[in-house]
Amino acid sequence: MCNEYFSVLTLGCKLNQLESEAVADAFTQAGFEQLTANNEQSRENGAKNSPAVVVVNTCTVTSKADQKARRVICKALRDNPDSAVLVTGCYAQLNRGDLLKLDAGTKRRLFVIEKDNVLNLIHLLGARHCVLDTLSTFRARHSAPDNSSALDTQFSFNPERFSRHTRSFLKIQDGCNNHCSYCRIRLARGPGISLDAQEALSRLRILEKNHAEAVLTGVNICQYKEQLTINGENAAGMGLAELLEYLLGGTENIKLRLSSLEPDFIDEKLVKILANKRIRPHFHLSIQSGSEKILKKMGRSYNNDTIEKAVNLLRSAKDDPFLACDIIAGFPGETGTEFDETLSMCKKLDFAWIHVFPYSKRPGTPAWHFNGTVRESDVSQRVQILGGLSAHGRERYVKRWLGREVEAMAESGTARGSKTERGCRGISENYLKLLIRHQGGNVPAPGTVLRCELLEAGNFKDYDAKAAVVPKLN
Ligand code: SF4
Fold first, then answer.
1. N or C: which end of the chain has fewer CB within 10 A?
2. Is residue 61 domain-shared with residue 31, that is, in the same domain?
3. Residue 301 CB–ligand 1 contact under 6 Å
4. Taking CA 164 as the corner, what is the angle to CA 9 and CA 225, rounded to the nearest 5 degrees?
5. Confidence band, pLDDT 50/70/90 cuts, at residue 162
6. pTM of this prediction?
């Protein structure tokens, strides 16, 4: 133990969350201790412990994400005057120079580290006494990206302990081969790359020892394609459907939740596997628009029929699964007509959640140069309209489930339903946030799997529904 603290601040998607877990795990293994609300105050003298390193894992999906990253970094520098602030992630990958300018102090405490170098660096920090000196030396040596194998580094983020989430995550894919005209993620993460299936299984078996659920993540998991070489020749490897079958066949109990899916990859073969009881009834479709004209401009290779077919197929895989989608509002050229097409598609398909992004112009992308910018006030109005539809969809979904039983996982912390009612927080198999009433004072430990009955709708801000533990597992 080097008696130093670290903290990790994460922005962005599930992939970033997983990578932050790996960062926290690596720091812990290197002898550092994670700074939490519990150990922030020093036991000896009551003074505040401060971290030797604050990691900020950034996102660049929208210009708001960039702004937020800059705000969080500046705050981390301000609040921790003696700490090194180590910035990594997608925004850092593309805007190193801009970020370094945020460090106005004389000590040069801000370090922008290529994601591929982060874990090696943490290992080095664990072996040295002075964090700032070690980071400065590392910065001098690694100011240019190294040439290490992308496969080795992109999948080295493999935490076995998850200190920040009840569920575990397994990264099976990174990067993307599509060229969506608005997307900056593929610029930051490069072309698609997949984890070897055997390695994925052995990682999942390790997770299965301590976790009831793993979320399979990647930038575009539908592009999972195992690279197989037999006798020096490229052989056909597994796609997502085969991988899922292989992972389910090689494990016993662990449940799998999938991150975003692409409509044009949903077919009968995949749906047959998704029907397996160990795949969570929760699917998130990356749709982006219901206007074929806009989809074409976005560089998305499907149309409304494909979207509708994908939704119907996913619904056929499970008993009323939680179905969510991503929509971008205000893409260049989206007039009221195209927006109405999106709106009526969303109404028709009745999603339980619509994740609406206001379009944001991203440097380096083709859409940066597109005409037809939508007025900001129109974009906000469209976001609001879709947000309202999403809220109603969620309410309808919860109501359909009232009185039914679901499997749920207890999460850390207690929640309050009213002044007198308390319970633990939980997340159901179909992705509802629950306030779970439990017997007596025994609060279930985070990660405990419970069988619950959904009793009544929640306030949809803190939780979606109230639930009670059903005494016996069916
Ligand atoms: S599918 Fe399109 S939006 Fe998604 S990561 Fe790939 S390029 Fe970006």
1. C
2. yes
3. no
4. 90
5. confident
6. 0.84
Which atom of ligand 1 is found nearest the CA of 176?
Answer: 6
Q: Which of 381, 399, 417 is the last residue of a domain?
A: 399
Nearest CA to ligand 1 atom 2: 180
Residue 134: predicted pLDDT:
72
Taking only Cα atoms into account, the Rg of the chain, rounded to an integer number of angstroms, comes to 23
Token pair listed for 33: 């201790």
Average pLDDT, the chain: 88
Q: Is the CB of 298 under 6 A from ligand 1?
A: no
Pocket test for ligand 1, best of 60, 93, 176, 221 (most atoms within 8 A of CB): 176
Give the position, in ligand 1's atom list, of the atom nearest the Cα of 183: 8
**35 and 61 both lie in a single domain:** yes
Range list of β-strands (E), 240-376: 255-258, 282-288, 322-329, 353-358
Amino acid at 472: K
Burial of 48 (0-12, 13-18, 19+ CB in 10 A): exposed
Return the sign of the alpha-carbon dihedral for residues 331, 337, 338, 344: positive
* Percent with pLDDT over 90 in the chain: 62
Residue with tokens 């100011």: 143
Mutating to test ligand 1, I would choose from 219, 223, 365 the residue with most ligand atoms within 8 A of its C-beta, which is 219
* Number of domains into which the chain is organized: 3
Secondary structure string (H, E, C) spanning 417-473: CCCCCEEEEEEECCCCEEEEECCCCCCCCCCCEEEEEEEEECCCCCCCEEEEECCCC
Q: Check if 219 has its Cβ closer than 6 Å to any atom of ligand 1.
A: yes
